[in-house]
Design a protein that fits this description.
single chain, 363 residues, Rossmann fold, 2 domains, 5-stranded antiparallel β-sheet, binds adenosine-5'-triphosphate, ABC transporter related, P-loop_NTPase, AAA+_ATPase, ATP-binding
């Protein structure tokens, strides 16, 4: 359906897209993930001709988009885009936002366009907001109107550029639910997203972009569970794990806990799990505090979505010592809390590093 070959984009001296080739079949849902500034949005904007590519070719069903004679409004109708910042017409009602394109660009009569707009608004759960103005809606509702407006143009392909990035966390799921529904209905979509759980369960294929290239691509399972290339692995590990280095007994416990909370929020962990995790970390650190007199402690929290498991790993250099060894512990209570919250505790010594790995019990 879409065939991109050797696409490149430069801004002055800066090359943002290097050499992108991609084929997309009808009905595919492709998520594009990767670090900030690697050209994900630029790639989508080039597909939609909001940016003029510097080289390469783009064809949709055999039609060359970069041909000077190509009908750009028609291309944008077939391959419509939903933006991070909604881009609704604020002086028009919700329904008028949905009818203006079909009436003016597709030549559909007003009554028919209004009828269709109401049907689409029903589909995105906003029929009762037809006469409201965008400013009267929440961010999540605005984005659903933007998706509805896109659907009103009867597109064959939808490009989503970070559709939930501008939303409060509480509104993300209502927008993702609408996109999930479109995926189920067989819509062909390319979605730039930072929502990894969503990318994992909605996509047929995931592209990991890095430094202007599609660095690795595969099924969600391949990319999230078994990435083959180094940078993909590092990226996936970074979003799935939390690291904190504690180098003195005066470390800022509150700052560290706040960072752990943010990590838990990103992984959408239940409140009880967060509570148990924080308690377990606190007890483990208390027992390991004496080590801070001579060495730093590296704390890692690793979340595996597949196994739904949380592992806490504490590492330090120095002489071989396992402070969770029952015989060494002055504080029975601390150990009791730990054994109550942990499913498994392991100690390993390798290359002069003590490593304690504690698996949190499922709550
Ligand atoms: N109009 C422009 N002029 C100059 N540089 C630009 C322009 N648009 C984008 N860039 C640069 O291109 C690079 C890629 O930007 P892009 O927004 O495509 O990245 P991204 O991967 O989508 O990032 P993020 O995930 O943060 O949105 C960035 O370094 C950006 O500064």
């Amino acid at each position: 359906m879409i065939r991109v070959a050797h696409l490149s984009k430069t801004y002055g001296e800066v090359t943002v897209l290097k050499d992108i080739s991609l084929s997309v079949a009808k009905g595919e849902v492709i998520s594009i993930i990767g670090p900030s500034g690697t050209g994900k949005s630029t790639f989508l904007r080039c597909l939609n001709l909001l940016e003029q590519p510097s080289g390469g070719s783009i064809a949709v069903d055999g039609i060359d988009l970069l041909d000077k004679k190509s009908d750009i409004p028609r291309i944008r109708q077939r391959m419509n885009m939903v933006f991070q910042s909604f881009n609704l017409f604020s002086h028009l009602t919700v329904q008028e936002n949905l009818t203006i394109g079909p009436v003016r660009l597709l030549g559909i009569n007003k009554q028919e366009a209004e009828q269709k707009a109401l049907e689409i608004l029903k589909l995105v759960g906003l029929a009762e907001k037809a006469d409201s103005f965008p400013d009267e809606l929440s961010g999540g509702q605005k984005q659903r109107v933007a998706i509805a407006r896109c659907l009103a143009m009867n597109p064959e392909i939808i490009l989503f550029d970070e559709p939930t990035s501008a939303l409060d966390p509480t509104m993300v799921s209502e927008v993702l639910a609408v996109i999930r529904r479109l995926a189920k209905d067989g819509m062909t979509m390319l979605i730039v997203t930072h929502e990894m759980d969503f990318a994992r369960d909605v996509s047929s294929r995931v592209l990991y972009m890095d430094e202007g290239l599609i660095y690795e691509e595969g099924t969600p399972q391949q990319i999230f569970e078994n990435p083959q290339k180094e940078k993909t692995r590092a990226f996936i590990n970074r979003i799935r794990s939390f690291n904190y280095c504690i180098s003195s007994t005066d470390y800022d416990l509150y700052a560290m806990n706040a960072e752990i909370e943010i990590f838990c929020e990103r992984q959408i962990l239940p409140r009880k799990t967060r509570h148990n995790l924080l308690l377990l970390v606190e007890e483990l650190l208390q027992i390991h505090t004496p080590l801070l007199a001579t060495t730093a402690l590296d704390l890692t929290i690793a979340y595996s979505e597949k196994k739904e498991s949380l592992e806490i790993i504490l590492e330090n250099r120095g002489e071989a010592v396992n402070l969770l060894d029952k015989d060494r512990l002055p504080d029975e209570l601390g150990l009791n809390i730990i054994t109550h919250l942990a499913q498994q505790i392991d100690y390993q010594r390798c290359e002069e590093i003590n490593r304690v790995t504690v698996l949190l019990k499922r709550s």
